[in-house]
Design a protein that fits this description.
Helices cover about 70% and strands about 0% of the residues. By secondary structure, the chain is mainly α.
Length: about 180
């Protein structure tokens, strides 16, 4: 790309996502206007715009604007935006429906949350959600199955707890930091 030419959409999105992960406000600011231009038609850009406002990176923290961008991303089928909206939602029925929708869309964080919520009433239901989340790459979910096994809340046919702790570690999850 020649100097002065706008970056390709994928480059802008990758740059903002990386800068957001590092908390690098200056790098986000360098691409913010382009990201917001892309956000009207790109689900990932809209989701990132929501994240900027939710976290207050390169913009003031603003829940209303975060919801606006998350809703735009959700309308374009972004499962993580749906998950974020579920966390912000104060209506229990709508929140539950959004969590289900996000999980069905592939959000491992929604699957984990559904497992956590099921845990108090049914270890088996929790383990079902945790298995799905672990298969999608969520190490905390694998650690949660290990903890349920350790506590004797799941049948031994699920395998040894250590198997799930090893899996959690392979997914970069320090399972020992999650006491149950």
């Amino acid at each position: 790309m020649a100097q002065g030419e706008p970056a390709a959409p994928a480059e802008v999105i990758a740059a903002v996502a990386g800068a957001l992960a590092r908390g690098d406000s200056a790098a986000v600011e360098a691409h913010r206007a382009e990201l917001l231009r892309l956000a009207v038609s790109d689900a990932e850009a809209a989701f990132l715009a929501g994240e900027l406002h939710a976290r207050g990176v390169a913009v003031p923290r603003d829940r209303v604007r975060a919801e606006f961008w998350y809703q735009g991303a959700e309308a374009m089928g972004h499962a993580e935006a749906t998950f974020e909206l579920a966390l912000l939602d104060t209506d229990p029925a709508r929140r539950a429906a959004r969590l289900q929708t996000a999980a069905a869309g592939g959000s491992h964080r929604a699957m984990l949350k559904l497992g956590d919520e099921a845990r108090a009433t049914s270890a088996e239901a929790a383990a079902d959600w945790y298995r799905q989340a672990a298969a999608a790459g969520n190490g905390r979910a694998a650690a949660s199955i290990g903890r349920l096994l350790e506590a004797g809340r799941l049948p031994a046919s699920e395998g040894p707890a250590t198997r799930w702790f090893v899996r959690a570690e392979a997914l970069d999850c320090p399972w020992w930091e999650f006491p149950e």
